Records
---
Amino acid sequence: MLLLTWFEENRRDFPWRATTSPYEIAVAEALLQKTAATNALQVYPEFLEQFPDINALAQANSESVQETLYPLGLPARARRLHQMAREVVETYNGEFPATEKELRELPGAGPYGAAAIACQAFGESVPMIDINVMRIFHRVFSVPFKPRNAPTQALRALVLEYMPEGKAREYNLALLDLGAAACHARNPECEICPLCSLCDYNLSHNHEEPSDE
Ligand code: SF4
């Protein structure tokens, strides 16, 4: 698959990609909401040092959780992450539920966070669809793009259709990295994109007329 071949050479490495711990992935997803990965990186190790597991976070007081995330702003995010930890400890005896469906019920997880934990920690073959993935599929397949809306079932089915069997994690992360490396919101760099030969957007915008010579 073109995308996965590209990903092997171009993948970004982050500490949250080197773990299958649902807790560590949940923390990363909370930090990454509305925050660039480079900024989240500045807080992630310290957060895990201070709250190394779900029980430590659940037992912490709210102020210390908010203080640790203070450099990233958005105190509501600290509250939600703290609530999630308490819910996992109180309702699930400290073990994250293992399916996207159950994870969606956790406070603060949201559809994207639930998919990210289900796929990366538990190997469930579910699509992780954020605005960048929506944009890529909109451009490649000319499907509607409504960034303020949740992904439609049709889009979810389309993303799933191209997911290689047994490679859900690589596929999802490859799409994220493609959005960061080439398929920017403005001025996509189609010339370095592995999907350029089959992308509707590229073919309609960058089509060169054959030379007469
Ligand atoms: S070819 Fe261009 S528009 Fe299409 S997916 Fe790649 S970067 Fe995005």
---
Amino acid sequence: MNLRGVNHQLVKIKNRNLILRLIYERGSISRQEISRLIGLTPATVTNITGELLEKGFITELSNFREKSSAGRKAVPLAINPTAGYVIGVDIRPKIVRMSISDLLGRLSNIESFPYNSNRDELIETLVEKLQVLTEDRDILGIGIGVPGLVDSSSGEVKISPNLGWKNLNLSGPIEKSLRIPVTVENNVRVMALGERWFGKGKKSDNFILVYVSLGVGSGIVISGKIYKGINNSAGEIGHTVVSEDGELCNCGKKGCLETFASARAIVKNFKGTSLDEDSDIDEIKSAIEKGDKRAIEIVNRAGHYLGVGISNLVNILDPEMIILAGRVIRLGKTLLFPMRESLESRLFSTNKIRIEISELGKEIGLYGASALALEKFFYDKEEL
Ligand SMILES: [Zn+2]
């Protein structure tokens, strides 16, 4: 293909992405509005929405005709949620969760299964379970979120300290067995995509999801795209140093944010034991509610350092919004008040930041993995 052909292809993909984005953001919107907001000619909009209509991915809401400015009836367009499905897979230490999602991120068939350290066995079980889920359904793609360093272009998990994996090609064997496109990405980046498609990031092109759970990580969205960095390691806020004389982190450095604000650190500081259950955070929450001074102090301190870490991100990237998610965020104002205070006192004078709490809940990883598969399907190729 010559350069002009490549360019034409890229322009088409870019325009389709803009139009789809707008339909997702607005819920329903007429061709005229699309044309006005994006600045594309009516002919281009008709052309691109025509393809989406023909494939069934969008639909005309013929009962809701609005008067357009030209006096003609404008027909709103909306996503046709059941035109196709994707599968989201959320791989966590010891457990895999998976679900089907329609085009609007409505999850169904949520299930989970435990696994041991044998990676081949895990892939085999995963393929079996996916085979069942893909029966009788038009599956557009599979998205998989994995903690650790992931090269999404090759589908390889480079290193995952939490899972004990190194150099594992995850997408290859699954794609080969199922003949469905499989995309693998770091789990927190995947969650940021979940926010972008279905959550609070729907209307924002520049935001950062900060996920505070077992560890602390972030997914950075700049100009509507996930920022990955040259080594695929962008967003490692958990390993930024917030106190030079802090404790030794499992990455080998001292005073990383994770040593103060992760669930692992908070539970260790409070109970003197390592964290193994989700309920540990609830235990600390109830200690706080009973007025336990030590619990309050530990969580206040975690909030303070979380604010320090986030202020560095905000001062460097100047995003529109920070979205907070993860089990530690459930600790509420005991964490969030000191966080906000230390964050705001450290912001460069012209910076303002909106802080939001994610509404995707415990299934944020599944929403994200579904969004990853949708993004791959809609945004990456010329022909749908
Ligand atoms: Zn560290």
